[in-house]
Amino acid sequence: MDIKVDGLKMEVMRKALDQARRGRLHILDAMYNCIPASREDVKPHAPRMVKLFIDKEFIGAVIGPGGKVIQEIQRETGTTITLEEINNRGEVSIFSVNKEGVDKAVSWIKGIVAVPQIGDTYDAVVKSIMPFGAFVEFLPGKQGLVHISEVSWKRLETLDGLVKEGDAMKVKLIGTDPKSGKFKLSRKALIPKPDQQSPTENES
Predict the structure, then answer these.
(1) Best CA proximity match to 102, nearest among 52, 68, 168
(2) Chain segment 48-106, per-residue pLDDT in tens
(3) pLDDT for position 204
(4) Closest C-alpha to 52, from 104, 96, 98, 109
(5) Banded model confidence at residue 200, pLDDT cuts 50, 70, 90
(6) What are the backbone dihedrals phi and psi of residue 61, each rounded to the nearest 5 degrees, phi first?
(7) d(Cα 40, Cα 160) in Å, to the nearest integer?
């Protein structure tokens, strides 16, 4: 279109524009025949960025003392994370060259800012064993107690040989301690109660 020729007829311009339009539509039709819709996601190893918005009160928890938490997330997931307070909320940007790292970082941060709800179930990891029960981490940075009476429907005197540090278990949040505010969890609540008529029957 950027030409300096004097006397170019309007009919020539119309013909050129019509040819260009038909050529463009032909190319688009060929593209749609190849890929009828855009891909839901880019390839796993394509660089990507995900943005999360969190409540202002959780900014400190994601950063951690001296940046310890956010540095750990970056180190373990191979991502680069920036966090800014904008319009009274936290804006988290996660950059990575692979999908797996981004997904792991997103899950980690969502776990930190999640508000545990009584009745919800979680995949927990045993962190320490005490005579009265097991302390488990059921969300990133959030731990609770599975009392020995909440491990099994059977009466247990000890957890020796049954549960050890590093074990994974599914737990249910059944309440919080009214004095300390600590989370009370149960494994037993997710196990079918043994038949009262068959007290010797093993738990499934």
Answers:
(1) 52
(2) 899 999 999 999 999 999 999 999 999 999 999 999 999 889 999 999 998 899 999 99
(3) 42
(4) 109
(5) very low
(6) -70, -35
(7) 49
pLDDT tens digit sequence for 109-144? 998 898 888 999 999 999 999 999 999 999 887 899
Spatial distance between the Cα atoms of 91 and 81, rounded to a whole number of angstroms: 10
